[in-house]
Fold each of these.
Amino acid sequence: MAIYHNAAKRALADGGLALGFGLHHLRSNAAPMLAKAGGHDHIFIDMEHGAFTMQEATQLCIAALPHGIAPIVRVCAGALDEATRLLDNGALGIVVPHVDTAARAQEVADAFHYPPAGTRSWGGPPAVYGYIAPHVAEAQTAINAEILTLVMIESPEGVANADAIAAVKGVDVLLVGSFDLTSSMGIAGQFKHPRTIEAWQTIADAARKHGKVLGIGGISDDEDCARAIGMGSRFITTGNDHSFMVNGSIAAAKRTREQVASATK
Amino acid sequence: MPLVTNTTKRRLASGQMALGFGVHHLRSVATPVLAAATGHDWMFIDTEHGAFSVQETTQLCIAALPTGVTPIVRVCAGAIDEATRALDNGALGIVVPHVDTAAQAKRIADAFHYPPQGHRSWGGPPAVYGYKPPSTAEAQKAIDAEILTIVMLESPEAIANADAIAAVPGVDVLFIGTSDLTAELGISGQMGHPQVIAAYQAVGEACAKHGKTLGMGGVYDEENASRYVGMGARFILTGADHSYIMAGADNRTAFFNGLPAAPGR
């Protein structure tokens, strides 16, 4: 069987946007189907801030594969061992937060790629091949090429090292964590602050110079999103199950109250 | 989004065999992928004898939909309410065991089809449409046509009533529970007994007369399986996760114990 294509990586390689559906609350295998119904390319399973077990996260990954929805997981900064278990069980991309230096980015890239590109260990039934894999050498080369390695830049040190981080082979996406970045700069949540915009631009320039993809995360209003897209941001999480439910339920309650008020006038 | 295709129903409609992968132990979403990898057309989630919750069952059903493996659930004889919950959450077919009369078959067909054909209730997010259904009227009609209603004949009374059961509109498959049938006949486990052959003959003729499919369960040896497939059996269970694991594991211990260099036990 052929490897499951990474829809997000392919969309990015074609110069397009990769739209992600964030997961925090959901544990049902319906999640990738919901992401697809909403027009997304990938699910973004957040194990940095969500309380997913390894089993829960990988069940969602395996369920996403036949939908053509790329399962991408954010792990905690130090949890590279969880990342490789996720890759072994269906994930097609890993987001590592808080990457401040090129040396750290190199460790991440090494951990996620099989030799000779890196040092990833081979093991377990190959979920990304639907359990029918070709010869191990062929499979390792193909998997190395199909996965997405994303590092998050979210500190002044990371911004200062953006060019060196972008130069690391095997890193595909520089993802800006705008909340933690502005917090660590002493301007928490000020996405229109000149220093924030300057930091985004530095990272965008580094990504463009080294042929890497830019993602500016954490933003949601029209002005910020327009600015980010203008800078080249293409790896985008549209929101997550939490924001979708809260915003949707607020709108539904408001509409119902208005209907009631209108009917009883 | 289009309705998920019931590949098993399509195969049966064109006179081909449809092979089922029985599930008793597994709860992972990898299950339908494994069934596909091993050449199966449908998954037989056995909640008559397996200890599945409705949640576990429907998570497997939802995971199967994008793989092309048809999720089919066997409920307990009296659990028609669990059957419709499974249909509401991804199942594309239901097996009801111990159906002895046309009246019972009629009640089952009524429960599984929307009005005007039956009395199934509409509700919940429509998993079989990837959560993007057309209008309710169109969806109900299409779902009625896509699901498989399978009744099990496994008593002398059922065999005597095979013609009347096969005549019930909305029943697609008459599935012989050969194991329980032999027990009821007092010839437990004798899959090639003349009374069993006579039962396959009678049910096969009833199916042919009314345009229904003959199914075979509990027959796994070459001589008898060959005979009953020759008599028209097309809806076929190849075994279950339990029997596959036992056979595979037995084979490996025999291999290592049989190596010429192996020390005696």
Note: Residues 7-263 of chain A form a domain with the TIM Barrel fold (CATH 3.20.20.60).
Amino acid sequence: MRWSKVPSTQYSVQSSQRKIRHWVLSTGYWVLLAVTLLAAAPAPDERHLSVYSPVAVYSLPVVERAGRDYVGLLELLEPLGRVSSELNGRSLRLRYNTVDAEFTVGRTRARVRGRDFDLAAPFLIENSRGMIPLNSLSALLPRFLGTPVSFREISRRLFVSDVSIQPSFHLDASTPPRLTVTFSAPVNPTISTEPGGLRMLFKRDPVVSPGSSSISFDNKTITHSEYSENDGNAEIDVAATDPLMASFSADRRTITITTIQAATTAGTPANGAPSSAAQNTLPPGNPAATGSSSNASQRVLAVVDPAHGGEERGAALSDSLAEKDVTLGFARLLRHELETRGFSVLLLRDSDVGSSLDQRAAAANKAHAGVYISLHATSQGGGAHVYTALLPVEGANKGVFHAWNSAQSQSLPNSRLASAAIAAEMQKRQLPVRVSTASLRPLSNVAMPAVAVELAPGPGGLADLTSANYQQRVASAVADALFSVRDRVGAQP
Amino acid sequence: MIPRHLLIAVAALLVLVVSMGIYMGRMRRRAGELESPAASSLPVAPPASGPTETVTLYVADDDAGVLRPRSAQIPLPGGRQQRAEELLRTLLRIYQQPGATHPLASTADIRSIFLVDPGAAVIDLNAAFADQHRSGILTEQLTVNSLVETLATNVPGIQRVNILVEGKKRDTLAGHADLSDTFDVTTVVQAGSQ
């Protein structure tokens, strides 16, 4: 007898149910995966319109509707003058200063100053706000503002009145070469160094092309510069074969670009804001070599300020440890380290007493110190955090009087030099370090190179904050760094 | 002997009382459940409605010591001042979530923002924002930079920012970051980009 395999009906139903379940599960899985990927995908690049006018500099988001670029009308006008608007059904009535206008949703015809005006695309309303096509700005805005407007549509930069800043280039081809870029008004670019050159990004300055977008220099080190505009920003790239750094002068109207090596040997690096890369690479110098070149009779006075004290405990670093106690112990060690390197040291408190921030700044200023070091402590991060004041750099020759809140401005270049030197010494000792800026008093009130050093836990955790050995390592790094730059930070009169 | 109809009536009344008791108990429990969220100390802000917009929030990361730009889709009201307030409240909610990279107190709130022409903004924080803020140069500065940069990036024309606490000037946020002076937007943004 032979048995043959007969397909069972029950088996076939179970099989098809299993198939359906499998199909539903796999479809669900792929749908879920697709939704997750879509949610996690980065948002498309936002585009901006930069507006430069004598009263305000700002940027606005640009949105695309039906293949055309639009920008918010109220957002565009609000920073420039007094604006009021009324939305009545599909019509938006708007008043800018004394100018009346009316726009209708979906229509290109508008009325401005009582006369018809044709937009390049229909007027839109989104979220109760009127949107106008970008390429109508150059014709529409003069009707509101009564002044000429220049709009660069490709780079999305709008100039109201004559606010543009023109750069001019001058290369001093001596060895080492020095490129001076002079602007017709103060500028504040973001400067970054990268292999093969230096980039200046003007996000808020109405910088325009120097005439030609590419300028070649007859020099082997600094070869050429390129000007470009994109997404509301202007950019100047300087190409070079050696690493470059930039410094500001003449009230930020002049940027001098030179090689890092040349700047450090000439001792002129930081009459302004060196780029972040330059700060990191700036060699602090050899203490022994610097010491031998300095005049032994000129002792630099260092003011060491252990923050907090008395009733003002500072941060609670643990249940029983207050910041004021750590800063005092650390300050005593730093005083010893500085004194052994030939500094005179003024400790602003040597016990658990409190004094106001103004009193501390006044004491440092009255002493005409060469450098001021504010000491703090934190339970977060590791190693040390070194801060300079969060202030704009001011040019020299501002007179003998300084504004109290920005007294530090003129000394900022040398403060940054000291900060970079401390970071370099910390790194030499394999101690983590972070360099940053902070709106911190009395740092901003002292008229001398000034840094704040915030002691953070070492590899041993919070216990390191009170460890004499750990504090000694950090204090020694700070003292070595200040010794290496003592010729720059100033001598006691 | 008690009449039969009276017994039935009493039994029906008893069933009614018991069922009413059970019903009341359930209603009270439900009312208690509804009341509990209102007792929360979280700040209550009227939700904005309408179409959403893409904004860039600058979110502080304590470990890295930096601000990280983050795009968010949020509904924003029409007025410039209300937009600014909603923007910073959205930022605040990120910091109040469990596991935030820069935690702030759950009771911290923005009382209001005043936009003063030309180009000045005043942020008024509530007392809990400052009183319960962690103390330290980095953490306080990150909070300030995050507020200033987020506001200036999304509300056009702001060049200077002042920060008040409960409508009054305050020396520092939590012992370090100076709030007595005006923050220059360009300087703050540039410090963040370096």
Note: Chain B touches chain A through 47 residues (CB under 8 Å).
Amino acid sequence: MTALAKLTDRFTEADIDSEIVIMRLDNGEFFSLSGTSAAIWRLIDGGRNRDDLLAALSDQFDGTGGEIGRDLDVFLRELRETGLLAE
Amino acid sequence: MSAHRTDAEATIEREMRVTYGDAPKTLRDEPLAEMSWQMLGDSFLLRGEGHHYFHYRKGEGITVDRGPDADLSEESLWLDGSVYAAVASINGLLPIHASAVAHNGLVFAFTGPAGAGKSTLVAALGKLGLPMFCDDTLVLDLSDPARIVCLPGHKRLKLRPDAVNLTGTTPLEAVSKTVDKVYASPSGGDVSDSLPLGELVFLEEGDQAVIEPIIGAERFVRTEDDHQNAWLFAGARRLDPLAQFAHRARLAQQIRMARFSRPMDPSRFQVGVALAAKYVRNGAQQ
């Protein structure tokens, strides 16, 4: 399974308390991430793959592996669709 | 008199010096309409009603050009308002639309759209012993990356007649012929030293008086300001989107924020004022 990598030349980001604000550089669109999505975003470091993320999230959050996995897959798909994550 | 003037205080005092004489009538190819302004590089030009121009160029101060039809009662309003904000912006200072009090060496600023009650609240807090820091425009010095400092100045409190009655403030002279406000002396006195910004409180209307912290990404959202002061700053600094994002992120990270919801019903006004005074005296979110 391949490591997940952010397309770092496409956005800028800032931590505000425990949340993250991201701006796409091509169109100025903003996103804010909190809770699980912020945790996933922070875990994506170019070295971890999807299963590594799932294991790390299972340590941090309550819920079954299936529930967390579904949330993870939905969020990763959204990141790819918005052009922030490599295919 | 401030015990120690900061570089930013010295800059704004020097750059706000006023002389009277001929000013350019436009900074661009097209004429400048009444009640509008232009900014070009380090220059700013504002036109009031008729022949009444205010020209600023960095390092040269302000030139006021009065024609026979100029309304002199408006002059100090222009100078203390848009011109002051433009001069601050061109010199790297950030003007925000807020009135503020000081307590324990920190500034507690109240912001909101026109009519939100900024000046009225500051006047009422003055009655409870909290000195005014500024009215309507708060200038922030961002030169220290570690903290945001507020510049003193812009002291004259302006209140609508109903706010004078509501706060029990003693009215002074009328602000101008056209503005339905009077000047008033802040009951709690004022502060003339630069002080760190303690908190920025957004005034909102609600059923009950309550003050709640604003956390996370909402603070970033709250840094988007549609007031003229923000347009002046954006025009002066000419920030590209990346720099604008960094600017807003810094404000969101370093400024504690809260929302103060309260009923606008005058009969419940003092309940909100008491809550705000207690909040400030307790050091807000600290």
Note: The mean pLDDT of chain B is 92.
Amino acid sequence: MQVDAQVVLRLAMTAAREGRAEEALSQLRSIASPGATFAQQNQCARLARAIAPRLERLPTLRVAFLAGSTIDPLVDLLGLWLLLAGFRLEAYNAPFNSWRQQALDPESGLYAFRPDIVWFFLTARDLRFHDSAVAVVDGEAESSAHLRDLIGAVEQVSARLHGHVFVNNAEATSTRPLGNLEGRLLQTQAGQVSRYNATLTQALPPSCNLFDLAHQAACFGLSRWEDARLWFHSKHPFSLEAFGPVAFAAARLLAAGAGRSRKCVVLDLDGTIWGGVVGDDGPANLRLGASGGAIGEAFVAFQTYLKALSSRGVALAVCSKNDDALAREPFGLRSEMVLTLDDFAVFTANWGNKADNIRSIAATMNIGTDAIVFVDDNPAERALVRAELPEVAVVDLPDDPSDFVAALAAGAWFETLALSDEDRLRSRAYRNNAARTLAMGDSSDIGTYLRGLDMHATWGTADSTRLPRMSQLLNKTNQFQLTEKRYSQAELETMASDPRFWVSWFSLRDRFGDHGLISVVIVRMGPETPCIDAWAMSCRVFSRGMEDLVFAVLCREISRRGYASLLGRYVPSPKNGVVSALYERLGGEPDRASADARWHFDLGKPRQTANIFISEVPRDNAATPADTPTTN
Amino acid sequence: MNDVWKKNALGKIEAIFRDHFLDDNLHISEATSPADIDEWDSLAHIGLLATVETAFAVHFSADDMAEIDSVSSLLAALDRRVNG
């Protein structure tokens, strides 16, 4: 690390000790890098430990590690990378190699810790997959027995706890007794590990998550990854230097599980997705494809990667310093272009300040600037955006376009625990949303605009096909989020079959397209007054009266079940100020007696309904396709 | 052990410890052991050895690692590896 980084570390440590936690955090962010040496990341982790306790309103993630090896360095570095992702880590590292007992014993430290996340951190090293005196296995390999043990333990934990469970797959080894042939013969150690990994992906319960340790080892390089000396000395599963990249990747994944992945890549054009400057060179002379040489091929490869990102739900937007018409020309004129104008949610080409443009792009798409990754080949633009919008992730693009894909991929900005159809259609959804925002600009008044949207809403109670999306919505939504309750799919499933809970979803479509499932409401019923336990709504459908419709349906359904009143609670967070007065606006009586913010609704009183421009499409909740009886 | 070499080595080791613990007030002498520094636990120990290896361009054997449990044993192992 350069001398100035050592200076920054010490300044930041002093700042942290003197209570200037935000300042220390920003200094830490400026020097931490997943590619830094273990020694450097360790220093950053020490600093992170000094900062975290002094930050207010930092959500905590309670992570329990069940390992068969010494993973203390992982816990330390995960604390660093989770802090930078916006979380305080509270860790429980189970006693060495006790994972079976911890999972099976209901009185174990694991369950007493009440984790949000349980991570079975097992590796091929501690499972001894490459530690056999027999090169070719006859009959069942030990790895099958291990898999049965592991799945059994995972099922126990999933049954007793409702958080996320992570399980590693197994890494390869560089020292294969049968050498190259192990790539082909299934009965070798390497063959058995391949089979273990393939079977694991199928045998793992759908609500559990795989951590691709094999991929981490491959990226790092097996020879550097393996550290026999360290294993024999202190049972570390891999080299010290490997802990950094693993911790970084893990933090991105855990943050994604808690709703914190980025949503959009904002792209420059000249020198970023094509070679040359369209204003100077003209569209015909831009370097794209084979005719543009190696550089031309590199830009096509980068566009291809971006298109693939878009196909799985990452939005793309353009922010270019150019004349708008000129900037659009290459998309029509050059056949080598992989990206089309249709791929972009927003296309901004003007001579204005890029920071302002990015703010405007975020506003049009109704996402936070902290959901944006900015890619620009111009270091001056990057520096400007970094300075003005520190919450935007700015990719440090290298000089050679051949390395652009790697530079963007290295940030692991778009991790997700599951892929839904909604995700795949999300790019179109962002584009439609932007069109709506622009259409709003064209309407003379809000009523005309809303009526013109021709909105229809459908709702229902939770069913198995919708559970993943419902859990995703509850976890990802930060603004329209009344009580900060973040339930996993497993928890939702339990509540949905519990008659004490009303677990519902709402979806909305309009003239421009189908928004899909955009709200989840959970009401806890029982002998006392029912209470709205959770209510989240996608920011895509703000300011169009959807919340009024949801509330009207909610009141009707709870009233139908014989209740006379209803309670709503608001739990404040840094991002949900937009709903702090929602229950008041909906006509609730503030409950001044209680310590937290609560409102009381009398279901018997006729409700003054706001002008709702959304039609409710009736849906028969009693029958889902699976329930439809087959009779003649 | 050459006195000049030892003094130089101690200086380098002290710098390494100060970086590792982010504490410029730490003083390292031949007599220093984990008992003297609260945060010098087994995890810190592994990290410190790795940094020392890089700084002195040596590679400790598994036996070396088992033996090193204080600054004086670290100096001895370094002396063996560096000075032969």
Note: Residues 142-160 of chain A form the longest helix (19 residues).
